[in-house]
Amino acid sequence: MTEQTAFNIVKNHLLTQMTKSIEGNQCLYRGPNGTKCAIGALITDEEYKKIEDARCKDLKVYEVEDLQIVSLQGLTIDFLEELQIIHDHYEVQDWKNQLETFAEKYNLQYE
Predict the structure, then answer these.
(1) d(CA 58, CA 74)
(2) Exposure winner among 29, 44, 59, 96, fewest CB in 10 A?
(3) What is the residue extent of each domain of the chain?
Protein backbone atom coordinates (compact mmCIF):
# COMPACT_ATOMS: atom_id res chain seq x y z
CA MET A 1 0.00 0.00 0.00
CA THR A 2 1.30 3.48 -0.76
CA GLU A 3 1.55 6.18 1.86
CA GLN A 4 -0.99 8.28 -0.04
CA THR A 5 -3.52 5.44 -0.15
CA ALA A 6 -3.02 4.67 3.54
CA PHE A 7 -3.34 8.33 4.47
CA ASN A 8 -6.56 8.71 2.46
CA ILE A 9 -8.08 5.66 4.15
CA VAL A 10 -7.12 6.82 7.65
CA LYS A 11 -8.15 10.44 7.08
CA ASN A 12 -11.53 9.50 5.65
CA HIS A 13 -12.11 6.93 8.36
CA LEU A 14 -11.19 9.13 11.32
CA LEU A 15 -13.01 12.21 10.05
CA THR A 16 -16.13 10.14 9.40
CA GLN A 17 -16.02 8.14 12.64
CA MET A 18 -15.21 11.22 14.78
CA THR A 19 -14.77 9.16 17.93
CA LYS A 20 -11.88 7.20 19.34
CA SER A 21 -11.73 3.44 19.24
CA ILE A 22 -11.37 3.03 22.94
CA GLU A 23 -12.49 0.92 25.85
CA GLY A 24 -11.86 2.40 29.26
CA ASN A 25 -8.58 4.25 28.83
CA GLN A 26 -7.13 1.86 26.25
CA CYS A 27 -7.15 2.62 22.53
CA LEU A 28 -7.99 -0.41 20.42
CA TYR A 29 -7.40 -1.38 16.80
CA ARG A 30 -11.05 -2.47 16.78
CA GLY A 31 -13.31 -1.20 19.49
CA PRO A 32 -16.93 -1.09 20.59
CA ASN A 33 -19.66 -0.32 18.06
CA GLY A 34 -17.42 -1.09 15.09
CA THR A 35 -14.92 1.67 15.84
CA LYS A 36 -11.38 1.43 14.51
CA CYS A 37 -8.22 3.34 15.27
CA ALA A 38 -5.95 4.73 12.55
CA ILE A 39 -4.14 1.43 12.05
CA GLY A 40 -7.26 -0.66 12.55
CA ALA A 41 -8.78 1.14 9.57
CA LEU A 42 -5.95 -0.16 7.37
CA ILE A 43 -6.16 -3.81 8.39
CA THR A 44 -8.60 -6.14 6.64
CA ASP A 45 -11.02 -8.22 8.69
CA GLU A 46 -9.18 -11.40 7.70
CA GLU A 47 -5.84 -10.01 8.81
CA TYR A 48 -7.30 -8.61 11.99
CA LYS A 49 -8.19 -12.15 13.03
CA LYS A 50 -4.44 -12.88 13.13
CA ILE A 51 -3.91 -9.94 15.45
CA GLU A 52 -6.76 -10.99 17.73
CA ASP A 53 -5.19 -14.40 17.98
CA ALA A 54 -1.92 -12.71 19.00
CA ARG A 55 -3.68 -10.71 21.72
CA CYS A 56 -3.73 -7.47 19.80
CA LYS A 57 -4.67 -5.35 22.78
CA ASP A 58 -1.16 -5.88 24.18
CA LEU A 59 0.65 -5.11 20.92
CA LYS A 60 2.24 -1.92 19.71
CA VAL A 61 2.10 -0.81 16.07
CA TYR A 62 5.67 -1.93 15.38
CA GLU A 63 4.81 -5.45 16.52
CA VAL A 64 1.92 -5.68 14.07
CA GLU A 65 4.39 -5.53 11.19
CA ASP A 66 6.07 -8.67 12.54
CA LEU A 67 2.78 -10.53 12.04
CA GLN A 68 3.20 -9.93 8.31
CA ILE A 69 0.00 -7.99 7.84
CA VAL A 70 -0.15 -7.59 4.06
CA SER A 71 -2.34 -4.49 4.34
CA LEU A 72 0.51 -2.61 6.03
CA GLN A 73 3.32 -3.66 3.70
CA GLY A 74 5.09 -0.74 2.10
CA LEU A 75 4.48 1.52 5.10
CA THR A 76 7.22 2.39 7.56
CA ILE A 77 6.92 2.01 11.30
CA ASP A 78 7.40 5.77 11.75
CA PHE A 79 4.56 6.51 9.32
CA LEU A 80 2.21 4.09 11.09
CA GLU A 81 3.16 5.25 14.58
CA GLU A 82 2.61 8.90 13.69
CA LEU A 83 -0.86 8.12 12.33
CA GLN A 84 -1.62 6.14 15.47
CA ILE A 85 -0.49 9.04 17.66
CA ILE A 86 -3.08 11.28 16.00
CA HIS A 87 -5.82 8.86 17.04
CA ASP A 88 -4.46 8.00 20.48
CA HIS A 89 -3.07 11.28 21.79
CA TYR A 90 -5.13 14.08 20.27
CA GLU A 91 -8.69 15.12 20.90
CA VAL A 92 -11.13 14.29 18.12
CA GLN A 93 -11.65 17.97 17.30
CA ASP A 94 -7.89 18.27 16.64
CA TRP A 95 -7.68 15.36 14.18
CA LYS A 96 -8.29 17.42 11.04
CA ASN A 97 -5.45 19.85 11.84
CA GLN A 98 -3.13 17.01 12.86
CA LEU A 99 -3.89 15.13 9.64
CA GLU A 100 -3.18 18.26 7.59
CA THR A 101 0.18 18.65 9.35
CA PHE A 102 0.91 14.96 8.80
CA ALA A 103 0.13 15.28 5.08
CA GLU A 104 2.51 18.23 4.76
CA LYS A 105 5.30 16.37 6.56
CA TYR A 106 5.00 13.36 4.24
CA ASN A 107 4.32 15.39 1.08
CA LEU A 108 0.86 13.86 0.69
CA GLN A 109 -2.23 15.31 -0.93
CA TYR A 110 -4.92 16.31 1.53
CA GLU A 111 -8.05 15.74 -0.53
Answers:
(1) 24
(2) 44
(3) 3-105
